[in-house]
Amino acid sequence: xxxxxxxxxxxxxxxxxxxxxxxxxxxxxxxxxxxxxxxxxxxxxxxxxxxxxxxxxxxxxxxxxxxxxxxxxxxxxxxxxxxxxxxxxxxxxxxxxxxxxxxxxxxxxxxxxxxxxxxxxxxxxxxxxxxxxxxxxxxxxxxxxxxxxxxxxxxxxxxxxxxxxxxxxxxxxxxxxxxxxxxxxxxxxxxxxxxxxxxxxxxxxxxxxxxxxxxxxxxxxxxxxxxxxxxxxxxxxxxxxxxxxxxxxxxxxxxxxxxxxxxxxxxxxxxxxxxxxxxxxxxxxxxxxxxxxxxxxxxxxxxxxxxxxxxxxxxxxxxxxxxxxxxxxxxxxxxxxxxxxxxxxxxxxxxxxxxxxxxxxxxxxxxxxxxxxxxxxxxxxxxxxxxxxxxxxxxxxxxxxxxxxxxxxxxxxxxxxxxxxxx
RNA sequence: GGAGAGGUGGAUGAGUGGCUGAAAUCAACGGUUUGCUAAACCGUCGUACGAGUAACAUUGUACCAAGGGUUCGAAUCCCUUCCUCUCCGCCA
Length: 423
What we know:
- The chain is an alpha+beta fold.
- 42% of the residues lie in helices and 21% in strands.
- The chain has helices at 4-9, 11-20, 27-65, 69-104, 143-149, 155-161, 172-190, 204-209, 235-239, 297-314, 361-366, 390-400, 411-417; strands at 125-130, 153-154, 168-169, 194-196, 201-202, 222-223, 228-230, 246-248, 254-263, 282-292, 319-323, 335-343, 348-357, 369-371, 377-379, 381-389, 402-403, 406-407.
- The radius of gyration is 27 Å and the shape is elongated.
- It binds one RNA strand through helix 3 and helix 4.
């Protein structure tokens, strides 16, 4: 959530930035400023009258103590006259604040200055490519054929157990998944991230804190009996560790990593996009999250991008890094880099990581702040990225390393998998 | 799931209707003292939103798990929800 102060300071700039994100309801900005004015006015009135009531009430207490019943009764009558005003003002306050808040949460985060102008994924800026696209043997096939041929993942049985999009990993296919998770976590903790294993269901407050609610309500699985949501990413539980927390300055930066399954309803896709492991309802992911001082958040974003890049390099996968354009960014992000790996048999790029700076958008909403040496509370920024999302990495590794009689593994995974080849 | 006991500031913990935004202790921070450390002593030590200021200062309101209610006045009384602990049940 944006701070009202930002809108007050420069409403026209805010509108211009919102336009970069292709946000339509620009009139909200002015409406919010007006509501905020109103809110202040009402509060001042309320405070004044409530102050009188409080003073009078104390006076009554004293009078009662002195046994001056009659005078006390008289004052009670006076206070009673304020009561209707107080309750009316109170209702106005709540109504105005609610309206203000409801409008404020409709605004997406403002894009950073370097966000490319554009609406579609084609307009994302390709900032870097790395790795080598391998030349596959003549009979090379996409991963959905390979995993069937070698019996690594069984989609049919997964569909029988649960439904489509819930893969059942099997044998070496399951072990490979486990090896990848282990490797990614080790890679992250080696870089100073503290490992967490969070709850996989979260309550409404948490879903709201990181911005999944109200924006992405329909994309999460919802356990209605208990009003809990299955997490779409570890970002939700892990970032919410610091909801309503005031950090000490020396505790920053907070660096966390977590493995979790991710659950996404993702209705509406079809065709090659959802073939095989390209898009599923349940997948595994290892996430990195940081909470940092505002002045450092863009430097940290670059560090996180470099970190993920190094991980991809260690997997010997061809990759490219995209700076997302305004139209392709998430609601909550100020700047996002997507990582894609090249899936040689499918001959297409697959998104495997998304690294974002949220600036104060999540922390403001979550009421996470820091306190400096002078006891001043200061805002903090939050960032996160996938490091990495498993299924598409799995797909790319399987496809790019296929040989005629099996599937090889990159060196980094040999010790984790216990072999230099998957099959 | 059943029965009981609780949820107060960073921590421990007092507080059953007004003098309590909250005692006391500890921790933390600043200072005095000190060869150094420790101890002792003095001081500071919640958050949010307003008013005010160049900025401090100062000041109003709200907040004692959350939300409602009673009352002139609620941490304190009532209701609902959530959470924790103990015992029992169930269970990986």
